[in-house]
């Protein structure tokens, strides 16, 4: 039998960080193995936004008008990008809930690894997945006739804004995953993600909605990111005279920051409460 | 006992969930190198105790040391020296058995090469080599438990906690786990397991503590606990119901103990001191008096009877009443 010496638990901050990074990498590899083991699940996850593009762009697209003129497909794609970021909440939540319910979270907690490593590993895997989703969606958009108009650098900025939103929503997912432990609760959250994604400027301009609904849609954090990315991609439909619409670029930073500031401490507190 | 000889020592552990006291002054001393059973009904505090000892839960009061380290002040040191098997097999079902073991090995920081070598050894030891590359979700309950056990043994921990290791397994899976547990103490390891099955504690444990209401009510070897009831019993089943009373009188005077008479089963029982002498004298005297016995047997009391006499309720009854309460796991 291999003689294994019990490694010293690091005491200085640099060595501690080394363990955290090593553990995060191990957990990232774990996430990648999940993809390799369940390719159909990954493909199904990718198929959903692609179907949405075909459905909304192809079927409803001809009947849709873009506020201020322009092609509906050009308007729709940034909305789809934002929506797929929002659906990431469900993906993060499912991962956290599965680990907790199968006792894997308890095993991690009974091992000499920090809570930070578990979360960092989860973040890396989720962000990687969302990046892949975005790239594939963009590819599909290009095939369907969408493109960015103002050059590569602003487009890259739009890409980064989308990932910023995803990063903020990650903490919503982790928090919900720790709070909601039953499969029924999890599917309720999935159902709520639809109105969150649709009552926004993702598919239609809030100006065309009834007054109160339009206001809710405009103040939906997803709208600010969608609006800002439309500006960066040079896509149409960036009108709007309300304060929130005019300050979309600013708000596309403020909203994710606010979400992070609320849900990061909530998630940390919930994780710590596991030992109470 | 000196601390150095103890794998686990707790003093006056307390833990409350809302109004419910899960641990109310829990004192335990587990010597090194034994299988130690915590036996008690659901809700007695067994799982809470294991969760405190494995650093998953903070106690409200009292102290606990595992392998010589304090569970709250030296949690990291404790975590390197324990293995935990919870009520579910805590493995990543999407990964193969081998991938699981390599992942956990790397998380213990034994290095990639060592993690791979250790994974292969453990697969071999738990007869999982063949299934090593299959995803764990295709494993049977018993196989999954063995994988879980293998993952707990990566660092060769000195103390292993098993929380109801066979709950939900079929008889074959149960035997499987029992075999593995017996092998664990061979190299000087301490196993602390909880169970609500008397048979399991009787089969596996060298020492047993009976747990009720969040504290230890009695500790001993299975034999000591059974002797607590006054040793062995003789039981005579009679052919004719009207012989019950004379037989009761004869057995009572022969053994100097009050017999209990079970009319429905035509059975007379009493506690005996000297097994063989009691058996022969009872058989002979009944025969001399023309009383026909259908069956005469000596038997040891079961742990269930011990539990009942100590707590006033059996394990099965309390399990049923407990299902109605909400218990934090």
UniProtKB/TrEMBL annotation, chain A:
Coiled-coil regions listed in the entry: none
InterPro entries: ABC2_TM, ABC2_TM_bact-type, ABC_2_transport, Nod_factor_ABC_transporter
Domain ABC transmembrane type-2: 40-274
GO biological process: one example: response to antibiotic
The keyword Cytoplasm is annotated on this UniProt entry: no
Transmembrane region(s): 42-63, 75-98, 119-146, 152-178, 185-204, 248-268
UniProtKB keywords: Antibiotic resistance, Cell membrane, Membrane, Transmembrane, Transmembrane helix, Transport
Protein topology in the membrane: Multi-pass membrane protein
Pfam families per the UniProt record, alphabetical: ABC2_membrane
PANTHER family the UniProt entry points to: NODULATION PROTEIN J (PTHR43229)
Similarity section: Belongs to the ABC-2 integral membrane protein family.
Protein name: Transport permease protein
UniProtKB/TrEMBL annotation, chain B:
Broad class of enzyme this protein falls into: translocase
GO molecular function: ABC-type xenobiotic transporter activity; ATP binding; ATP hydrolysis activity
Membrane topology per record: Peripheral membrane protein
Pfam family, one: DrrA1-3_C
A single cellular component GO annotation: plasma membrane
Keyword Nucleotide-binding (UniProt): yes
Primary location: membrane
One Gene Ontology biological process: daunorubicin transport
Residue ranges occupied by any ABC transporter domain in the UniProt entry: 8-238
Keywords from the named record: Antibiotic resistance, ATP-binding, Cell membrane, Membrane, Nucleotide-binding, Translocase, Transport
PANTHER family listed in its UniProt record: ABC TRANSPORTER ATP-BINDING PROTEIN (PTHR42711), DOXORUBICIN RESISTANCE ATP-BINDING PROTEIN DRRA (PTHR42711:SF19)
Family per record: Belongs to the ABC transporter superfamily. Drug exporter-1 (DrugE1) (TC 3.A.1.105) family.
Protein name as catalogued: ABC-type xenobiotic transporter
Species: Streptomyces zinciresistens K42
Taxonomy of the source species: Bacteria, Bacillati, Actinomycetota, Actinomycetes, Kitasatosporales
């Amino acid at each position: 039998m291999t003689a294994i010496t019990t490694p010293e638990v690091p005491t200085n901050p640099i060595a501690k960080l080394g363990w955290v990074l090593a553990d995060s990498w191990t957990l990232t590899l774990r996430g990648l193995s999940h993809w390799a083991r369940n390719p159909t699940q990954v493909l199904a996850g990718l198929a959903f936004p692609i179907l949405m593009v075909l459905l909304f762009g192809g079927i409803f697209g001809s009947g849709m008008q873009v506020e201020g003129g322009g092609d509906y497909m050009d308007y729709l794609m940034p909305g789809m990008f934002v929506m797929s970021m929002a659906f990431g909440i469900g993906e993060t939540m499912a991962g956290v809930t599965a680990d907790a319910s199968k006792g894997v979270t308890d095993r991690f907690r009974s091992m000499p690894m920090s809570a930070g490593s578990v979360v960092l590993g989860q973040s890396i895997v989720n962000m990687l997945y969302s990046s892949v989703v975005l790239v594939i969606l963009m590819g599909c958009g290009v095939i369907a006739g969408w493109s960015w108009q103002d050059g590569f650098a602003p487009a890259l900025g739009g890409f980064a804004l989308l990932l910023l939103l995803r990063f903020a929503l990650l903490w919503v997912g982790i928090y919900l995953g720790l709070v909601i432990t039953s499969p029924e609760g999890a599917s309720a959250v999935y159902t709520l993600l639809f109105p969150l994604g649709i009552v926004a400027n993702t598919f239609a301009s809030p100006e065309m909605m009834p007054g109160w609904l339009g206001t809710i849609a405009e103040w939906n954090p997803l709208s600010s990111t969608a609006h800002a990315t439309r500006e960066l991609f040079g896509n149409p439909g960036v009108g709007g005279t309300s304060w929130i619409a005019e300050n979309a670029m600013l708000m596309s930073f403020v909203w994710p920051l606010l979400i992070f500031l609320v849900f990061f401490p909530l998630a940390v507190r919930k994780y710590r409460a596991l030992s109470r | 006992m000196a601390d150095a000889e103890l794998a686990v020592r707790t003093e006056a552990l307390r833990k409350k969930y809302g109004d419910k006291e899960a641990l109310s002054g829990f004192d335990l001393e587990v010597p090194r190198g034994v299988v130690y059973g915590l036996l008690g009904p659901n809700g007695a505090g067994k799982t809470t105790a294991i969760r405190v000892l494995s650093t998953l839960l903070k106690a409200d009061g009292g102290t606990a040391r595992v392998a010589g380290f304090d569970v709250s002040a030296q949690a990291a040191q404790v975590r390197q020296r324990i293995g935990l098997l919870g009520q579910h097999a805590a493995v990543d079902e999407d990964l193969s058995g081998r991938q699981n073991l390599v992942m956990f090995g790397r998380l213990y920081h034994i290095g990639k090469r060592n993690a791979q070598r250790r994974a292969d050894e453990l697969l071999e030891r738990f007869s999982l080599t063949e299934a090593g590359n299959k995803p764990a979700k295709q494993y049977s309950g018993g196989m999954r438990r063995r994988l879980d056990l293998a993952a707990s043994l990566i660092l060769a921990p000195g103390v292993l906690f098993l929380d109801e290791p066979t709950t939900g397994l079929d008889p074959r899976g149960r035997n499987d786990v029992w075999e593995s547990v017996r092998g664990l103490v061979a190299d000087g390891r301490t196993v602390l397991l909880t169970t609500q099955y008397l048979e399991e504690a009787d089969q596996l444990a060298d020492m047993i503590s009976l747990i009720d209401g969040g504290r230890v009510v009695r500790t001993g070897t299975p034999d000591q606990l059974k002797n607590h009831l006054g040793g062995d019993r003789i039981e005579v089943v009679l052919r004719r119901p009207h012989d019950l009373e004379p037989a009761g009188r004869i057995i009572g005077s022969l053994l100097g103990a009050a017999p209990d008479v079970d009319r429905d089963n035509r059975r007379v029982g009493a506690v005996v001191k000297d097994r063989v002498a009691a058996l022969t004298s009872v058989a002979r005297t009944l025969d001399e008096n023309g009383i026909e016995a259908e069956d005469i047997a000596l038997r040891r009391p079961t742990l269930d009877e011990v539990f009942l006499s100590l707590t006033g309720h059996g394990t099965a009854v309390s399990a049923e009443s407990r299902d109605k309460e909400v218990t934090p796991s």
